[in-house]
Amino acid sequence: MSLRLRLAVAGAVAILLALGLTALGLSALFGAHVERRALAEMGVQLDQVLAGLEMRPEGVALVRPPADPRFAQPYAGLYWQIEGPWGVERSRSLWDAALDLPPDTVGDGGVHVHRLPGPGEQRLLVLERSVTLPERLGRGSARAAVAMDDAELDAARRAFLADLLPSLGVLALALTAAGWAQLWVGLRPLSGLGARVAALRAGTTDRMGADWPREVRPVATEIDALLTAREAETERARARAADLAHGLKTPLQALMGEADRLRGSGAISQAEAIDDTARAMRRTVDRELARARTAARTADARADPAQVAERLIAVLRRTPDGARLDWRQTIPPGLAVALHEADLAEALGAITENAARHARGGVTLSARPEGDRLFLSVTDDGPGIPAARREALLRRHARADESGTGLGLSIASDIAAASGGALSLSDAAPGLTATLILPRARIREG
User: Fold this and answer.
1) Nearest C-alpha neighbor of 337 from the set 194, 205, 203
2) Beta strands 141-149 and 123-132, pairing class
3) So what EC number does this one have (predicted)?
4) Which neighbouring-strand residues pair with 125?
5) Is the pLDDT of residue 108 over 60?
6) What Cα–Cα distance (Å) separates residue 338 from each residue in 42, 153, 291, 443?
7) Residue ranges per domain, the chain?
8) Could you give the CA distance from residue 401 to residue 387 in angstroms, rounded to a whole number?
9) CB 374 within 8 A of CB 419
10) What distance in Å separates the CA atoms of residue 216 and residue 176, rounded to the nearest whole number?
């Protein structure tokens, strides 16, 4: 999971948990509020019951019952009951049932709240009060109670939740959308960080820069410091390679001079052997210098393959291998690759020399642009290379035969890879096609 998705999921879960707890809390608060309102209403009804008591010849009786019609309907969910010296009186709604009040002691005027079973498996909320009867009612004590079916309170709580949940759902969607927007804005610099690193790898920029938020800036600064250290190390490596090559060239030149003297004295075979060895060593030095140059390619490097190919063909026509061949060059002018001209000449020259050495009658140089890549191909009509051996030939010092140093194709592959491209070998009809896949140079502005 991406960082953005992880944070979004965590935020959504937190929102749902918070709103769920809010729903439970609001439901509990609403239930407590409804119960208080119900008890307040029952208190008024209890006062009406006590105020309606009068003395009759047969004893105390409730002559003015509460006005709520539910007291007169059997099992309607609202009940009253009085226990006194004269016995028990209850509302018509209790029918043949009675409120089983607990035997607790309540002081004069004291109030108790109970939850008791009622008729028809109802669960009742009961408000009980103990009173001392006045002289007109014969004195003594009485217990009066008013009860309500708790199902009405549950129905009110459920109706409240039914009204609340859609609103909480809309709020959850709004908060989740706001969280997504916050994440998009907050994490946008990380996307820019990835894009800038990709630009560094592509060579379209050379530094991360300092235009980053405070939290991201240390990462960009460390990357820039790493690039600076890498460039310095690469420059030192190039300098060491150049010093090594310079140190080797003078002894190699001396060896070739010694070979000339041996040849003049008649030791021709020994002179040829020294000459061949010195040339191979010099070629290796030159190749290593080329590889050192490609290690530090710059973002503004560009070369025209058509111009480089024309110069290569002109040189190769003057060699024994190239003089016997028919050369064709169909590379469109104006195509530019992101390589220094010397590096392109080194890579293209390596595969072109290889083609000239093995071709029977001709070599063709062509190019095909595809998006941001240029496919630069050299095709010969020679015997080709078995597919099983091609990968090995691109490794350092591999050879198709016993001639040469074995560095040509591997150096061309190294130069292509250093520029972000590759070298591929494929069959031609007949012969072999070696293709340099190179990044195209950016169009220069202005």
Assistant:
1) 203
2) antiparallel
3) 2.7.13.3
4) 115, 148
5) yes
6) 91, 80, 16, 10
7) 3-155, 203-296, 305-439
8) 15
9) no
10) 25
Please compute Rg for the chain using Cα positions.
50
Is the separation of the CB atoms in 11 and 19 below 8 Å? no
pLDDT digits (tens, 9 = 90+) for 186-232: 878 877 888 888 887 776 777 888 888 888 888 888 888 988 888 78
Task: List, in sequence order, every residue forming a beta bridge with 262; answer none if it has no partner.
Answer: none
Cα distances (angstroms) measured from residue 318 to each of 315, 321, 324:
6, 8, 10
End-to-end alpha carbon distance in the chain = 44
Cα separation, 135 vs 132, in Å, equals 10
- Residue 198 CB: number of other CB atoms within 10 A? 11
Return the closest-CA partner of residue 413 out of 432, 431, 398.
Answer: 398
CA nearest to 344, candidates 378, 371, 393: 378
Task: State the maximum Cα–Cα separation within the chain, in Å, rounded to a whole number.
Answer: 165
Asked if residue 62 lies in contact with residue 53, where contact means CB atoms within 8 angstroms, the answer is yes
3-state secondary structure of 133: coil
What number of other Cβ atoms are within 10 A of residue 259's Cβ?
22
> Whole-structure pTM over 0.85, yes or no?
no
Which CATH code fits 305-439? 3.30.565.10
> Would you state the torsion angle of the CA atoms of residues 31, 36, 37, 40, taken in this order, to the nearest 10 degrees?
160
| 8 Å CB contact between 335 and 368 | no
Least confident window among 10-24, 297-311, 429-443: 297-311
373: left (phi over 0), alpha (psi -120 to 50) or beta: beta
Q: Which amino acid is at 128?
A: E
Q: How far apart are CA 389 and CA 412, in angstroms?
A: 17
Quick one: average pLDDT of 18-39? 92
CB 133: neighbour CB atoms within 10 A?
Answer: 18
* Burial class of residue 1 in the structure, from the number of CB atoms within 10 Å of its CB (0-12 exposed, 13-18 middle, 19+ buried): exposed
**Is residue 335 within 8 Å of residue 367, measured between CB atoms?**
yes
Which CATH architecture group holds 3-155?
2-Layer Sandwich (3.30)
Asked if 70 contacts 91 with a C-beta cutoff of 8 angstroms, the reply is: no
Q: Cα-flanking dihedrals φ and ψ of residue 62, to 5°?
A: -90, 105
